[in-house]
């Protein structure tokens, strides 16, 4: 005899304390300029909640102000996300609160730092000009000399007056020899040592500022110690 069975389906509802906002993009703002952010509703399993129609509210106020917070317009995108924006009218620290069902979302209230807009119209005159073509990376030494990697497989160095005083590598000719380059990119100077991301040779070279080869590391590949077209360099202080 056949029997009918039924199964109850339980769906996790929206959980305000796990919901998030893309506030990492707006820790700073500019007076008089709109800043947008998106709120993502999440369920009790910390997964994106796919439904809309949640009571989402957002307000902002100047910290220490006696005035009531300003309510922000929140748009329900009908997919579990909500768009909002604000345009601060004063500088200083602001408190941005985002709630769902009157409960703050994760990390709300947020602190937003609002600054005056910068006037770039005064930056209309160059201080110095360096004559180089197809520059790919630049760095300064401790004497303010500028070193630039060029697409023509070389490195050129300029003093503070803009005059070139050194060139490393072989212009117009790529090479995998030590102290030579193939499309160098990122460059760093540490005292009298130059580090170069030798992109098409898939390695990092370490040279003296005179061009004398010191060391290299990296070969083409994706394993540990291998590189694939390195283009940027960073060194801890």
Describe the overall structure:
There is one protein chain. The chain is mostly beta strands. It folds into two domains: 102 residues, Immunoglobulin-like (Sandwich), CATH 2.60.40.10; 83 residues, Thrombin, subunit H. It has no helices and 18 strands. Strands 2, 4, 5, 8, 9 and 10 form a six-stranded mixed sheet that branches. A four-stranded antiparallel sheet has the order 1-3-7-6, with no helix packed on it. A hairpin with a 2-residue loop joins strand 15 and strand 16. It starts with 19 loop residues before the first strand and ends in a 20-residue tail after the last strand. 23% of the residues are buried.
Structural class: mainly beta
3D shape = elongated
| SSE string, helices as H and strands as E | EEEEEEEEEEEEEEEEEE
Number of strands: 18
Mean pLDDT: 88
CATH topology of the largest domain: Immunoglobulin-like
CATH architecture of the largest domain: Sandwich
Largest sheet: 6 strands, mixed
Q: Roughly how many Å apart are the termini?
A: 78 Å
What is the count of helical runs?
Answer: 0
